[in-house]
Write a structure and sequence with these properties.
alpha/beta, about 20% strand, about 35% helix, homohexamer, two-stranded antiparallel sheet, 8-stranded parallel β-sheet, 10 strands, 8 helices
Chain lengths: ~280, ~280, ~280, ~280, ~280, ~280
C-alpha cells in the first residue's frame, strides 16, 4: 500500500503528543492598510523549506534532534477579524494547555493578538519582546480598533505599562512615538540594548513576536510595507538567539511575509531560515 | 502661477455639477477568499488610461463629447465590510440624488452591494444585469454573510425572485446552481440570450454589474480567481453595448481587476478600454 | 488534541484502499532542452486547487462524489533519468496491481514513459491517446535517448505501429513528421477527428497522456516551450470529455506546466481545472 | 583551435554574399509615448529562437533550405531619431543595392521610416501593406513629426494617396480615422479583405510592415500599447502567408515587441515563430 | 456636492502661493542608453507614498508641519531632448521667480540640466553637489551631446571648474575619471569627505542632484544601470541630512528610479522615503 | 559588404590565438535539486555586459588593455551529466594545452568538475580556492554521485586532503561539516583568513571556483538556493582581488547565477561586474 507524502516545514514531522513545539499557520491579512498577501506566507514557507538544510552551522544543532508538530494552517474566514482572533486564541490555548509552545506563522501582525490572549490567560505575568519596523501602537486605524497597525496597543491593554520591549522601530506617526515614551520600552532604529529586555523579563514568561519587516528590505523585500533602514540577517539572527537563550519564551510568532512581493523567493527563504534558527533555540 | 496637473480617468475631467456620470473608485478587497489585490484597481486603471485613446472607433464617439466627473477613490477602512458598504451607499445615494449615474470601479465584487442598496432605494423596481464567471450566490462563506462570493445573493434579498439576469457563469458550488434555478435567470458558460435580460428589464431601471472575470483569463489574467472558458474581449464588448443601448441603466460598476497579478499590464488596459466603451454607451 | 491539516488536491481526500483513482506527482524536469521548471508543477497545482470549486457545472458532478487518493509527490533524484523512470514505473505498477487508475501529474513529458511501461506490462493491448503541441517523436536529442522530445518514440518502441493517436501537433523537425506518417496517427494543428482515436481504441485499454502545451499559450503561457496556434480551453475540455467518455482509460497523466513562467497564475489554475474535469470523467 | 559559437536567429547562418535575405535588428524606442522597451526585442528574439524548430509544418519548409544572413543589431544612439533613421536607411540601401531583401526587426515602429525611405528610392512604385492595431497616421505627437504614432503618415508623404493598405486597425484618434478615409485603404478591426491589398499591389514592389500589436494581447501581451480585440496567431499567420505568396515583397519589418512586458516569454516566442514563417514565405 | 480626491505626494497638499517648496515630476527617459523606464517614476512615487508615514522619527518632523505644493507631472514629448529641457527650465524658472524651491522628480538624469539652467541664471554663483554611481561626465554618447551620461559635463560647461562635488562615483570610462581630476571634486566609491563639499559651498547657493543609483542595488534595484558597491540607505540618508543642514539648497532633484525593474516595490518605497527626508530637511 | 555584429562579453573580442584568457559558457543545470535555471546564465551575462563599462576604477585597468577570447557557449545535452563533464573537460584541456587560462561561466556548480579534471591533469600539484555558501561536500545526493551538492567532494577525490580552501560556507548538512574538519580548510560564515589559502597555495597552481551564492541574497537574489548571511559585493570583490593577485591562478570559473530568479536584473549585473574584475586581475 502506498502512503501519503505529507508536507511539513522541513524536519517538523513529530506527532502532537511527542512534540515540544507546535507550529501552525494563521493565513489572515484582512486588516492590512497597504499591500495584502501575507495570507500566502505559511504555505510558501512550508513549501520552500525544502531548499533549507535541517542543520544549522550557527548553532550546531539539527531539526532532526528536536520534536516539532506542524499542524498545518488554520482555516480562517475573511472580513471578520474578531472571529479570526477567536479561532487563533482557541488553538493557542489548546497547545498551551498541553504544555507545549505555540509557534505561529502569520499572516499579518494582528494575528499576534489571538495567540497573545491565550498566552496571557495562562501566564498573567507575561512580557512581550517585539521586533518590528513599525510601532503598531495606533489606537485605531480609520476608526477600526483591530488592525495590524494597532496590535501591540491592543496587547498593551491586556498587560499594561512597562511590559513591552520593542526593537528596530523606525516608522509610525508622531502620536505613536509620543505615547510609547510612557508606556513601553522602545529601542529605535536598531537592535541594540537587548539586555534591557532580557533583564526586564528575567524569570518571567515571554511572548516573542517577530514582524519580519524589522529586516532591511534589501534582504527582505517581500512584505506589505517595506521600510528601508532595517536590520541585516545576521544582526537579527544574533539578536533572536541572544533573547531566546536568555529568556523563557512560552509562545512566539513570525509575521508579515508577503510572498507575492518576493519574485526572487529570497524573502521566503529568509523567513524559513529564521524559523529554523528559532525552533532550534527554543 | 503654476497649476496642479490632476489625474483623472482619461477624458473624464468634467466638474460634478455639469457631469451626467460620476466615476468613483471603491478600493476594497477585504472579504476575498483567495487572492486579494483588487484594492489597487481603480488607481491602476486611472494611471494606465493614458495609454488609451479617448476615441472609440467601435462607437465612433469620443470621451471629449460627454461629461464625466472622476471623483477619485473613496477612503475605505479594512477589516469592517459593513462600514465600507455604508460609505459606498452614501456616496452612490448622493450621486443618484443629483440625478447622475454612479459608475463605480472596484475593488472586489462585494462593493456592488453598497451602491445597489442606494439604487434600490431610489428605484424600487430595479433589475440587475450581471456578467460574471461566478454565481456569487452563496448564502455565506465560512459563516460570513458579507463576502464577494455572496454579493448577488444579498442583492436578491433586497429585490426578490426573477429580477436578476446572470451571464457567463461557469463556477460555483452545486447548491448555488440549484438555488439559481428558481430565483434568478442564469445563462451559463457564455453571453448568449441577452434578449431575455433586455426584455425582462424593458422600461425598468437597471443596475449593471460587471465582474471582469467573466472574460477569459487569456485576455484578463489579472483577477483573484481566474476561470478558464470565459468570453473574449469583443464578445463582452458587444454584449455590453447591446444591453446598454437597449436598457435604462441607472447605475453600474466594474469590478475584480487585481493589477498585481497582471505583470504585462494587459488586464488593466482591457479594464480601461471596457470602461471607455461603457461610458460612451451610457 | 489538534490534528494536522493535510493538503491534497481539492476534494481528493480518500484513503488508498477506498480510492478508485490514485493521484501522484512526478516532479522531474531533468531532460528539458529549453526552459526547465516543471518540477514545481504538482505542488503548485495542489496548492492552487483551493481556488477551484469541487463542483463542475460542465459535467454536473462533484469531486465529493468520487474517491481519489492524492499520495503526494514522489521523491525523485536529478541527473539520472533512468532511475527516475524506474521509480515512476514501480509506483504506477503498484497502483495498477490494486486495480486502481494511476493519475500522474508531471513534471516534464518524459515521466510518461515510466507510467506507460507499467501500464503496458499489465495491458499488453494498450493504446495511447496523446494531446500535445510537439510530436515528441525524435529518436534522440543531442545523443540522448531519454528526453522529453523523444518520449512518444520510446513508447512506440514498446507497442509498435498504429497504436498511437496524436492531436494538436504543430511543432517538430521534418524527420519526425516524416516518420509519423507510417507509424502513428497524427492529427496536426487541431483537435478534430477524435473519432479516429475512439474507434481505434474501441474495447481496448487506453493510456491518455496530456501535454498541456497543446493549449494555446494565450491561455497556457506557463510551459517550457510555448507554441502559438494551439487549442482553446473549452476545445480541449470538450475533446478530453469526448475521449474519456468513449474509451477505457486505464492510466493517464497531465504534464508540462512550468509555474515559474506563469506570473499571473492562470496556467496553474487551468491545469487544476483540467485535472478536475478529467477526474470527474474517469 | 577553438571556434567562436555565434548566435544568429536560428537557422540564419548564411554569409552576406550567398544570402537572399538579410536580417538585422534596429533596437530603437526613443519616441515611444507610453511604455518603452522595444529596444530589447531583436536580441531577445534571437536568443529565444533556440526554443523554435527550423521546420514549419504549416509550410512544410525548413530554414535550412534557404539562405539568410543575420547581421546582428545596428548600433543606434538614443535621443536623436533623425540620425537613427539615417543609419537604418543606409543599411537598408546597402542590402537593397546588393539585390537582397532587408528584413528588419525593431524596435518601435518609427524604424520603418528609415528602411522604407531606402526601399522607396530604389522602387518608386512601391506600395505598403501594414498590419497594426493603431493607425500610426498622426500628423505629429506633442509637436514632434517623428514618432511611432506618425510613421505611416510620414511614409504617405513619400508615396501619396491610395498606396497604403492597413489591416487590423482598432485604435487612434478621430482625426486619424477621418484622414484615412481619403488617403489610404483601412480595414478596421480584423484582417479581412486582403484581396484589396493584393489586387492593389499586383505586379508592384511591396513593403510589408508588421506591428505585432495587431495581434490580440491574449497571445501577444509584450508590447508597449496593448489593444484588446486583435487577431489570433493563426489568423495573422494565414493573412501574412496569403499576402506574401501573392505579392512581390521587396522589404519587410516586424516591430513593437517589448520583452520586459512579457514575463512568461510567450510574446517573444510568437515573434520568433512569425519571423520564421515570414522568412520561409519570402 | 462631492469633491475630487486629488493624489499628491503624501502630505504635500499646499497651494502654490503658500508653498515654500514646489514638487514636480519630469517623466522623461529618452536618452537612456541601457534600460529605460524612469518616465514612470514620479507617478509611482506619488502613488506609493501612501505606504509612508508623514512623520520622520529620524528628524522628529512631520510633512504636516511644512508647505509643499505638488504640481503633478510635466507633459513632455519624447524624441526631442532639447524641447524637454526647455520646458523643464521654464517650469523651474517660474518656481524660482516666486522665491520657492523647485524639487524635481525625474525621469532620467538629463532632466537635471533643464532645472540647473534655470537655477544658474538666477544664482550665477551656484555650486552642484552630486550623488551618483556614475560620473555622468562624458563629452558625448554615440555622438549626442544631450545624454544622461553627459549631464554633469553639460552643467560644468555652464559653471566651470571646481564647482561640482561628486560622491559615490564607481563607474565610468577611463577618460571621464581622467578629466574629473582637473575639473571637479570627485569622492570615489563612498560618501565620505562631505565636509569638502560643505566647505566649498559655504555661503553659496547649491543645486543638489541625487541619482538614486548611488545606492547599492541591494536596496535600490529599480534603476536602469545598477552598480554594485553603493551606499546603504542610512548612509545616504545621513549624508543628505548633513549636506542639506549645512548648505543653502536653492533647488534639488531626485532621479533614475525605474519602477518596472522593481517588482517588489522596494525601490519606489525607498525613493519616497528619501524624498520625505529631503523635504523635511529643506 | 555588411559585417556581422558579434556579441561577446563586453571588451572580450580577441581571437583565440592572441588571447591569454579564453572565456566560455557551460550552460548546464541538470543535477540541481531545488530551483534550476543556471543554464541561462552565460547568455544573460554576455547580453547584459553592455550595461557595464570596460574600465574598472577599482583596479584602474580596462578590458581594452587585455586579450580575452569569448568562444561562446558549449552545446551541452541534458539528462547525462557524465557526457556534459566530458565535453567541458575536453574544452578546458584544449585551452590549457594552448597555454591559456580557461575562464568558465556556468551553469550549476557541477561544471567545475569537468574543467578541474583537465586542470589537474596538466597541473598535478593544483590547489582549489573555493568561495561558496554551501559546502558542496556531500558524498551523494539521493544516490547520485554527480551533483552540484557533491562537486567539491568529487574534486577532493582527485587531489586529496589539505588542498582545498573554502570561504563563506554557511549551509550544508552535519556530516559535511564533520567531514570537512579533517579533509579541507573551511572558513565558515565569512571571507576572513584568506592568507591561509594564499600561504597554502604559494608557488603552486590554483583553480579558483566561485559559486556566486557566497554573496548575500540581498545583492545576489538570482540563484537557485539563496542563503542569507553572505558576503557583500565589495567584500567579495576585495577577497577575490587579494587571492588573485597573490596566487597563480591557472583556471577559474564563476557559477550559479539563475537569471529567471532575478527580475530586477541586478544579479546578472553583479555577475558581469565580478567577471570584469576577475578578468582584469588575472
Amino acid at each position: 500500500m502506498l502512503n501519503k507524502t505529507i508536507e511539513n516545514f522541513i524536519g517538523c514531522d513529530a506527532a502532537f503528543e511527542e512534540a515540544k513545539i507546535v507550529l501552525f499557520g494563521a493565513p489572515f491579512d484582512g486588516t492590512v492598510s497597504y499591500r495584502p498577501g501575507t495570507r500566502f506566507a505559511p504555505k510558501a514557507i512550508r513549501a520552500e523549506s525544502y531548499g533549507l538544510e535541517t542543520y544549522s552551522p550557527y548553532l550546531d544543532k539539527d531539526l532532526a534532534d528536536i520534536s516539532v508538530f506542524d499542524m498545518g494552517d488554520l482555516d480562517l474566514c475573511f472580513g471578520n477579524p474578531q472571529r479570526v482572533l477567536e479561532k487563533i486564541e482557541e488553538t493557542a490555548a489548546e497547545i498551551l494547555s498541553a504544555n507545549k509552545i505555540p509557534f505561529m506563522v502569520g499572516g499579518e501582525h494582528l494575528v499576534t493578538l489571538g495567540a497573545f490572549r491565550a498566552a496571557a490567560k495562562k501566564f498573567p505575568e507575561i512580557r512581550i519582546i517585539h521586533f518590528d519596523a513599525h510601532t503598531d501602537l495606533r489606537d485605531g486605524y480609520l476608526g477600526e480598533k483591530l488592525s495590524h497597525a494597532s496590535v501591540i496597543r491592543r496587547c498593551h491593554e491586556i498587560i499594561g505599562d512597562g511590559k513591552i520591549f520593542q526593537y528596530g522601530i523606525r516608522s509610525g506617526d508622531r502620536p505613536e512615538f509620543e505615547w510609547a515614551k510612557s508606556h513601553v520600552f522602545m529601542n529605535k532604529f536598531n537592535l541594540q540594548n537587548l539586555d534591557v529586555a532580557v533583564d526586564g523579563c528575567k524569570d518571567l514568561p515571554v511572548y516573542l513576536t517577530l514582524d519580519l519587516d524589522v529586516l532591511d528590505p534589501s534582504i527582505f523585500p517581500g512584505t506589505g510595507t517595506p521600510e528601508a533602514g532595517g536590520a541585516g540577517f545576521d544582526e537579527l539572527r544574533e539578536a533572536l538567539m541572544f533573547v531566546m537563550q536568555n529568556s523563557n519564551i512560552v509562545a512566539c510568532d513570525v509575521n508579515e511575509l508577503s510572498p507575492h512581493y518576493d519574485p526572487s523567493g529570497v524573502s521566503t527563504a529568509v523567513a524559513g531560515k529564521i524559523i529554523r534558527e528559532m525552533l532550534l533555540s527554543l
